[in-house]
Specification:
The protein is 29% helix and 23% strand. The chain is of the alpha/beta class and 175 residues long. It is an enzyme of class 6 (ligase).
Length: 175
Amino acid sequence: MEKVALRKSIITHLKYQDRKEKALKDKALLDDLLASSAYQKADTIATYLAFDFEYNTELLIKQAQKDGKTILVPKTHPHGKMIFCLYDVDNLVKTSFGLWEPAGDQAVDKSKIDLIHVPGVGFNPDGFRIGYGAGYYDRYLADYKGKTISTIYECQKAEFQPDSHDVAVMEVFSR
């Protein structure tokens, strides 16, 4: 199946998943992530502010803050540019895409990020992902030297050939 059709199929499946079951999987995925050496060794973690049908990143953000970690979230710009800024719940704006992002523009240097929690729609067995099609993460990760991790549901596992510009996630937890 081509990436566009696969993306559409998986998103439809995600939107109709059972909410109670999703909450249980989110908690189990959080436990998996917290137990990972990538999380335990990280001081600065970049994550994303999720759609309601995606993994609930609010769980990770709250726990990481309790653990004294610095949390960053993405801000997108035209022409596929993305930066990560400090997370401040009181300083977010909603994008035309329907996601929340920082109102400010103070980027944290890529070299200061220990771990990036990468979103995605579909993932193949090698950690390559299908995103939402804009390529922000593949461009950002192309020269990123830290660790990458993703948390997904079983329905997000897919078979597809990555494109030459795709960047694989190092560790993918699924439930």
